[in-house]
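input
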Amino acid sequence: MKVRVLGCSGAIAKDCRTTSFLIDDDVLVDAGTGVGDLTLQEMRQINHVILTHSHLDHIAALPLMVDTIGSSRATPLQIHALAGTIEALKVHVFNDIIWPDFSRIPAPESPFVSFHEHRVGQTLHITGKAIEVLPAVHTVPACGYAITTGGGCWVFSGDTERNPAFWRRINQLEVAMLVIETAFSNREKDLAKRSLHLSPMVLADELDFIAKDKRYPIYITHTKPAETEMIMAEIQRFDQTAVTGPNVTHDIRWLRAGQEFIL
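output
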């Protein structure tokens, strides 16, 4: 399974694109501004979009992508999400005011998109991939995902604050790679708490939930462009960010747009 990082920033700036991951060539996890780096042909190969939640940085490119490729597809683009996320998209985006309702266009019987609800704890089976919906704790209905094609799982926390249920579940999985958000620095820890995001000091507490017999690379995502260096420096104070060296507890790395991983 190939994971391509299209965007992993918490906001936009030069070379900073918001959250989106391409799994193999046909499944998109979130649809932030990183989708804009795909070619037309690459967009056409995507058949499924799996959303963690409805916030703009995770869905900003979805309406534009649908408009770009909808007429060239033989079947609707399938959008998978929690019920609350789908409701938000229908009411606030695909509403014929902000954007056309492509679930009825060009015709109700042959739309450009179709919506498919799932729930936390459910496992989707899509194009040879098992996609488990994981819990998240955020200001809107939200989830994370564990995706595998039979080996270790690629795990994405989505946007979340403290989340014991998440750790209980992934401690039961064979994790090959964890992507976890840390949106704010410690100086913004109060804002992080109010907006239900992680800061480095809370991340440190969360990583203590990892079972002692588990070890896998941990990639930090969703950092604000103006605070990325500070966030990573603060993380390094509580844990090594290199895979070798003294007192290494976790293998923590910074995720960057353009990276590709084979799992």
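quick obs: Residues 9 and 18 are 5 Å apart (CA to CA).
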